[in-house]
TrEMBL record, chain A:
Protein's UniProt keywords contain Amino-acid biosynthesis: no
Stated family: Belongs to the complex I 51 kDa subunit family.
Span of domain 4Fe-4S ferredoxin-type: 536-565, 566-593
Organism placement in taxonomy: Bacteria, Candidatus Ozemobacteria, Candidatus Ozemobacterales, Candidatus Ozemobacteraceae, Candidatus Ozemobacter
Top-level taxon: Bacteria
PANTHER family to which the protein is assigned, alphabetical: NADH-QUINONE OXIDOREDUCTASE SUBUNIT F
Name used for this protein in its record: NADH dehydrogenase, NuoF-like subunit
NCBIfam families attached to this UniProt entry: PRK13596.1
Keywords annotated in UniProt: 4Fe-4S, Iron, Iron-sulfur, Metal-binding
GO molecular function: 4 iron, 4 sulfur cluster binding; metal ion binding
From TrEMBL, chain B:
Taxon lineage: Bacteria, Candidatus Ozemobacteria, Candidatus Ozemobacterales, Candidatus Ozemobacteraceae, Candidatus Ozemobacter
Co-factor(s): [2Fe-2S] cluster
SUPFAM superfamilies in the cross-refs: Thioredoxin-like
Entry's cofactor comment: Binds 1 [2Fe-2S] cluster.
Protein name according to UniProt: NADH dehydrogenase, NuoE-like subunit
Amino acid sequence: MNASSTVITVGTGTCGVAAGADKVLAEIRRQVAARGLDRVAVRETGCVGMCYSEVLVEVADGQHKTLYGHITPDRIGRLLEQHVQQGKPVEEWRILTDDRDGPEAAFLKRQKRIVLRNCGHIDPLSLDDYLARDGYKAIQKVVKEMTPEQVIDLVQASGLRGRGGAGFPTGTKWRFARQSPGTEKYVVCNADEGDPGAFMDRSVCEGDPHSVIEGMMICGYAIGATHGYIYCRAEYPKAIVHLRRAIDELKARQMLGTNLFGSSFSFDLKIKEGAGAFVCGEETALIASIEGKRGMPRLRPPYPAVRGLWGKPTNINNVETLATIPWIILNGAAALASLGTEKSKGTKVFAMAGKVKRSGLVEVPMGITINQIIFDVCGGIIGDRAFKAVQMGGPSGGCIPASLGDTLIDYEQINQTGAIMGSGGMVVMDDTTCMVEMARFFLEFTQNESCGKCTSCRIGTLRMLEILERIVEGQGKPDDIPALLELGEHIKATALCGLGQTAPNPVLTTLKYFREEYEAHIHQKRCPAHSCPKLVEYVIRADKCVGCTVCARECPTRAISGKVKMKHVIDSQKCVKCGKCLTVCRFDAVAKE
Amino acid sequence: MQPPNHDRPGARPSPSALALDLWQNGQEPGQLIPLLQKTQEQYGYIPEHAIRTISSITRVPESEIYGVITFYKQFRLKPLGRYLIRLCDGTACHVNDARTLMNLIKEELQLDADDTTADGLFTLTPVACLGCCSLAPVIMINDETFGRLTPPKVRQILKEFRQRAATEDAATRGGTSA
């Protein structure tokens, strides 16, 4: 580092900033200066994955690295005084020491960090930080010591499969692109992460942009491409800034451009900002979008490896896949292949969200079970409620019920459940989540995002959505379930691209595992999770109502009776279930039953 | 989806500025989307005259440009309100009842999703995921994020923004009109 005796690092990834990291950082800088602490350095880093404890501040005092969670600007004074000036860590805010001891140690214990190796450890805006952690050693090794075929053989031997969701072997994909005739080829990094509830790629691009770029360079060398594009969502402004800065810094040091690292290898890179279309995660749609057109998919074959961007052979990989590549080159194929199951090697990053205690980013070895991730790594369900299901693979994936919680993280095993590995979104649901509503939510998403090119996706998903909307509103009909099944199977079989083919999955899997919930909605007009607004009873909890009369005044049908400072009551006969009382109550006294 | 540039309310790039930009970035095909993104950054939306200008420079038909604009969620053909409310409807926010917040904001502001209030103050737009899942449910107003929301908190926030607008207007009154 430098002459500083203490280094204070603030996590300023998007999740950290949302929790107020910028204000914490400014306050630390202000107070460090005000207290004259000239041997203290203040730095920033990306997401370490503990989103549930943001804002995170690490104090490295030369002996130990102490990580503090839930730091707010008003805690800085005590933190600096007690830890930095007096040398006594503040025990009640400490969550981890030296990455292994402390109340949150369990979160990291089962993780194996390959993709996230640098996230939360380096300043993502510093090329020197990346270089200090073996950065760009892999590409140098590749251009100096290996032939392109040897690189491809190594990637193939590692067993790495595409982390975007489908799990196609990366080495095989590269070989196709290498074998395609032509001198002009492209490498494209797909950073158009669109699944709601997934933020793995964002964290990597934000927290460790160079690892993605190095992966792209190695790919370029292997397939014979000299140009690359990073297609990144415009909704990820920070990731774009960090990637741009990384490219600028590389160019300034002649590490991007012609004749790199003392060899004849040349590689240049551009960033394309996606303009907000989920379907652009599909590779042919992504190519159309880079070309400046409407991002509509086309039939394959020809595959992009043969005819891709500008009609030239193109290899498209996901962020996580590319970030793994430098690690494989430096550690060997066997190191990755030693992790995981027979057919799924290495690690997988998951974005944990929903009703789980530790929401955030985890990287686990393949072959771990779903239960181990949810309970051992993420601490179980909020409020210790019952674990009901997990949605994997976002809108293209499916729901896996708690009864299959021992399913291994393995492409084939997860496919057997009807879900898919997907890009890594894992949304955990408890007994208060309605599965019919969940299916409706995902279908509404894909329906909205359908590009409209093929009929089965454009119209089919709309018909399914209409049925689901009816069911959650209590207007379901007995033949709705067979209709959903039939439509779903047809769409799967006939849609043009992956978006349409997988769109029915959330409905089909919830029908497979939670059919009784659909039936309760349809036949008994009842929502077993007490979630669907039209199918619940609104009640006022006598223990919480203070008799402020707000709900009675706001109720459009005057269904609420009660006098000032007296408990109020809802007349279920008059109630139209608009939910207004729930939103106006300041005492949390209105409940759904 | 950038909030409009309110520091320079009158700022409008001339067609020649766009042409210059195109000349600088236009060495390869596929510049239409970046060009539209730049236009929107400047105006806050894509005005009709910009479509005509871009078409005359790029020779891409206006109809095709319109097709691209309407395909991508990022582009808008109407000006934004002063405060852009982005309501997260990502999965985590959804399971934490973002729907209730949506209905609440719609009712409070008397507007629909992707619409702007009559006074030009607020634009409401649902977005897929703001990536603050651990703070769900979340809204963003311009570049400020508000997490762990409840209906009373949302009402309070809207009230504060209305007051903020009134204070700002009072301060600028008598000066140049925006």
